[in-house]
Amino acid sequence: MAGGGRARPNILVTGTPGTGKTTTCSLLADATGVCHINVGDLVREKGLHDGWDEEFECHIINEDLVCDELEDKMEDGGNIVDYHGCDFFPERWFDCVVVLQTDNSILHDRLSSRGYMGPKLINNIECEIFQVLLEEAKASYPEDIVIALQSDTVEDISRNVTKLTEWFNNWRPRRSS
Ligand code: ADP
Ligand code: MN
């Protein structure tokens, strides 16, 4: 059940790589005092993967190990989880699921300047065009906790952080009756 026993909510921020998840989450963590969990970094630091994918140049994440690693923290609440995937986390973990979205040409420039090219670049742009993360979020969580936010400009980031900070501060635990 959403909010089951937590004193503070958990937020998931997802979206195609380059849409601004880590930037948004760091600012939101500063504004609210929530713990920012960058799942990609966690996977690298703790070795929660099954090796390296040569084609897409990324670790093959071990979803079970990641969920085991995070379970206790998520039960406590007050976390913001940052990852470009969302279908393998337990549904009960999150009170709000944010999907960041970016205009295709803006995203293309961001990923190119990050050094992405070839299949990795194409795959990520297609992921954004086909709204893969939004569909994955809608398929994995209750519709009323999933929100899509545009992340094209720095003004968008400020507006999104303000909106999510307000949501966080207004959140109240569910009564268990
Ligand atoms: P993600 O964590 O989703 O991969 P990042 O937060 O690392 O994305 O952002 C990738 C790059 O794009 C960074 O250089 C960041 O400054 C820039 N960026 C992200 N979102 C925006 C935005 N809404 N406006 C301008 N630049 C952005
Ligand atoms: Mn990131």
Could you characterize what this model shows?
The chain is an alpha/beta fold and 177 residues long. It has a single domain (18-164), classed as Rossmann fold, CATH 3.40.50. The protein contains seven helices and seven strands. The chain has helices spanning 21-32, 39-46, 63-76, 104-113, 118-129, 132-140, 154-170; strands at 10-14, 35-38, 49-53, 58-61, 79-82, 96-101, 146-150. A five-stranded parallel sheet has the order 2-5-1-6-7, sandwiched between helices. It has a two-stranded antiparallel sheet with strand order 3-4. Strand 3 and strand 4 (58-61) form a beta hairpin. Helix 4 (104-113) runs antiparallel to helix 5. The relative contact order is 0.23. The model has no long low-confidence stretch (mean pLDDT 95). The protein binds adenosine-5'-diphosphate and manganese (II) ion. The site of manganese (II) ion has 3 residues, from helix 1. Manganese (II) ion binds at residues 21-22, 82.
